[in-house]
Amino acid sequence: MSLEILPVTGLPEIAPGADLAELLAKHGSFEDGDILLVTSKIVSKAEGRVLHAADREAAIDAETVRVVARRGPARIVENRNGLVMAAAGVDASNTPPGTVLLLPEDPDGSARALRERLQELTGRRLAVLLTDTFGRPWRTGLTDVAIGAAGLPVLDDHRGRTDGHGNLLQLTVTATADELAAAGDLVKGKTSGTPVAVVRGLGHLVTDGHGEGVRPLIRPAADDMFRLGTSEALRRAVTLRRTVRSFTDEPVDPAAVRRAVAAAVTAPAPHHTTPWRFVLLEDPRTRTALLDAMLAAWRRDLRELDGWDEERIARRTARGDVLRKAPYLVVPCLVMDGSHSYPDGRRAAAEREMFTVAIGAAVQNLLVALTGEGYGTAWVSSTMFCRDTVREVLDLPGDWDPMGAVAVGRPAEPPKERPERSAERFLTVR
Hints:
By secondary structure, the chain is an alpha+beta fold. The chain folds into 2 domains: 4-223, CATH 3.30.1330.100; 241-426, NADH Oxidase (3-Layer(aba) Sandwich). It contains 12 helices and 17 strands.
């Protein structure tokens, strides 16, 4: 198989409102099965996505849905189309001085519209890719990738096929659209003023319909092993954590919980001890038995110790539904093994507090690690108020002190935005 990559030359400077398809039809020569690789900048210009340079930072903010990494003024972000790139694609290159360009608002939609108009004008069966320049994790240098597509599949899934040696392919999915975009850039270049190239010889890829666009190329957050940069992960994982009280029915991966527990037990602890134990309630019958027994103990306390009536008790205990409706529960326990004994109450209390801080740090590690796995969590203190009941139902040793319970599951809805909290009001500097 062979192919050609041909430049489309002679295009004028693109102005807002320009009929880009008409200009391409005039300056290019196309055949059935051609794939057009169109630099997104000229589409942005034609669509009037031009701003004054002074508005660049505000534009980046407006286009950003998630900051992935930050170093000085440089930002790697996810934009509204799910693309992870520098500065949300807001670019000052190849645009008149004093201006910046936004990416097309809907790159797939722009590719479809351009394809339809070009096919109408030329009578040819074509595909269109909109391309932009990206950096890549772990690799120096830039390359073009597809950010909009119409008329061809953007992925080639080899899974289930065999290679030349008869080996079954289990993981290989080729990013065809990105390969084409990078190849086209060898012809277009960054400074040559050639924003469009044509790939000829791959007509079998061109489809009658527009297809799914580039969405299949964008890795879902749940599958992204490198969703945050290192420093951002360490800092933002803590602030991204939210208390989630409504979960989907999707089962929780026990391996993910065990990875989170492995992170939890790296917490600091007194005297080089390991004072943490985590009870994983994976059997629904065990969870139900525990929650029923805890509810009975709670009702008994409210009735006998607080003197509440049944209506008031029902309203108060309804708050415990978050544990009952969660698909998975973890009960962290404090074990005072390795603790020092003191004859006086003051030092004995301080010793207990040291170990309590350790289990608190472990629970925080657990919550943050589960957030990194894509799960929502809620720490609820209720097991601390009926420890004997919990130990009896779960058949735990007498020196294991339950320290609340953690509900785990996929959040039923996105957490609400939380404004950044300044440290100043919590500081005393001496």
